[in-house]
């Protein structure tokens, strides 16, 4: 598994060697990815692990999915989930959940590939919009991925019609 600081996107084919797969369990290498997140100052993967182990969130209901991005050699680079948005006031709204990319794998298209797969799954599930509550440090990323700032939307920073 690549560790923070030693992922070489060119050696892994950039995004060409990338696979994004739907998971039915936390993916192999999740512990190392979660440790990278903690080193980045975020607990979102620890929360995902806690929710998974408690059964609170397993991404196994209609309209839910968990995706993992991996190298051709099966090294875990990132994860992202999809659920119905529990904060939306209208139906047919999905929520991007727990998107995290290994620090050393950023700027190689991993986050965009995960988000593209989530958008595909959201459309297939009948969602009309996706919402996300992102940290300020991720605003530019979501905006590059066709999300708009969510003005007047409670519980979300960005949204995207799909």
Commentary on this structure:
The chain is of the alpha+beta class. It has a single domain, classed as Aminopeptidase. 26% of the residues lie in helices and 24% in strands. It has 4 helices and 7 strands. It has a 7-stranded mixed sheet with strand order 1-2-3-4-5-7-6, with helices on both faces.
The first-level CATH class is given as: Alpha Beta
Estimated share of beta-strand residues? 15-25%
Low-pLDDT runs of 5+ residues are 1-6
Tally of individual helices: 4
What is the quaternary state of this protein? single chain
H-E order: EHHEEEHEHEE
Give the CATH architecture.
3-Layer(aba) Sandwich
- Approximately how much helix is present in the residues? 25-40%
Radius of gyration: 15 Å
The CATH topology turns out to be Aminopeptidase
Q: How many beta-strand segments?
A: 7
Instruction: Give me the side-by-side strand order of the main sheet.
Output: 1-2-3-4-5-7-6
- Quick one: biggest sheet? 7 strands, mixed
CATH-defined superfamily: Gcn5-related N-acetyltransferase (GNAT)
In round numbers, the mean pLDDT is 92
Shape: globular
First-last Cα distance: 33 Å
Supply the helix-strand structural class.
alpha+beta
How many structural domains does the protein architecture include?
A: 1
């Amino acid at each position: 598994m690549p560790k923070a600081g030693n992922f070489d996107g060119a050696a892994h084919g950039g995004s060409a060697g990338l696979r994004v797969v739907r998971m039915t369990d936390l993916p192999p290498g999740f512990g190392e990815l979660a440790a990278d997140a903690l080193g980045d100052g975020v607990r979102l993967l620890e929360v995902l692990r806690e929710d998974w182990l408690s059964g609170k969130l397993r991404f196994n209901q209609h309209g839910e999915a968990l995706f993992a991005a991996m190298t051709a050699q099966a090294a875990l680079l990132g994860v992202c989930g999809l659920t119905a948005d529990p904060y939306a006031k209208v139906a047919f709204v999905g929520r991007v959940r727990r998107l995290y990319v290994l620090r050393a794998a950023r700027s190689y298209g991993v986050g965009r590939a995960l988000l593209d797969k989530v958008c595909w799954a959201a459309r297939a599930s009948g969602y009309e919009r996706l919402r996300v509550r992102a940290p300020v440090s991720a605003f530019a990323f979501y905006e590059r991925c066709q999300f708009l700032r969510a003005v007047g939307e409670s519980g979300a920073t960005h949204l995207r019609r799909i």
